[in-house]
Design a protein that fits this description.
Blueprint: E1 2-3, E2 11-12, E3 36-47, E4 54-61, E5 67-73, H1 75-78, E6 82-89, H2 97-105, E7 111-118, E8 130-131, H3 133-136, E9 142-148, E10 153-155, H4 157-161, E11 198-200, E12 204-216, E13 221-225, E14 235-240
């Protein structure tokens, strides 16, 4: 057996074989399918035509220019398979020359946002191909929606971590204070990751398995059940919901 001494070179005992540590291979995080980008319009109440029950939905729209495939990456050329999608058409003077040159290779119009969707196979996609929401999804499908949450600024422990406040009467002098954050002599420090006051919100958030209630092709909007992170006009990333054993392998 090999004997390891910290970071020094391993020594081999007499009659033993050299043991080489194996490299750790991380599994790639694939999407369940290609997705699209969209814009949050707002929330409303949608009444189900079958039973008349109210359903809280978020209305999602699409800006001019839509979603266009701007690059197809393959394992042979880039080391992995992915589809790069552009969204939100803008004027040419809003982009740099390298950005315009990159989009020009795919014969795509000037687009503000570019995102990748890592897939198992990319044979069905070509540069310049337009992606329509109603062709990729249908009513009743489950989707994962990622967006930047609304920033709340610097907040205390009660609002940020749902801590319980102290007594407001009976002589209490600790109403909304954080309380103890650790012992004294041992360990003599504050552990990393301790829940404390700080900046809240303004981070990328994903809400999983939201149901598509309605797709209106005339108004070019989509109604998704439930709340979606961010404010009105926020950029959204919509992908098919990952369901282990169905569209994602169990391993």
């Amino acid at each position: 057996m090999a004997h390891w001494l910290g970071g020094a070179t391993p020594r081999v005992l007499a009659g033993a074989q050299m043991v080489t540590p194996r490299a750790v291979v991380r599994a790639a995080s694939y999407e369940a399918g290609v997705g699209v980008m969209a814009t949050k319009v707002g929330m409303m109440t949608y009444f189900d035509p079958e039973n008349g029950k109210p359903v809280p939905v978020t209305v999602v729209g699409f800006r001019e220019g839509g979603n266009v495939v701007t690059q197809v990456k393959t394992a042979a050329t880039d080391g992995y398979d992915a589809v790069q999608v552009g969204y939100h058409g803008v004027r040419e003077d809003k982009l740099t020359r390298p950005e315009l040159g990159h989009l020009g290779k795919a014969s795509a119009p000037p687009l503000r946002h570019l995102q990748e969707f890592r897939l198992v196979a990319v044979d069905a996609f070509d540069p310049g191909q337009a992606l329509e929401f109603n062709e990729l999804f249908k009513e009743g499908d489950l989707v994962d929606v990622s967006a930047k949450s609304i920033g709340k600024g610097f907040q205390g422990g009660i609002k940020r971590h749902n801590f319980k406040r102290g007594l407001m009467t009976h002589g209490s002098k600790s109403h909304r204070a954080l309380g103890s954050i650790g012992a004294g002599t041992t360990p003599g420090r504050v552990y990393k990751g301790k829940k404390m006051p700080g900046r809240m919100g303004g981070t990328k958030t994903k809400i999983r398995k939201l149901k598509i209630v309605r797709i209106d092709n005339d108004l070019k909007v989509v109604m998704i059940k439930g709340a979606i992170p961010g404010k009105q006009g926020n950029l959204l990333r919509i992908t098919p919901a990952k369901i282990v054993g169905k569209n994602i392998p169990k391993s």
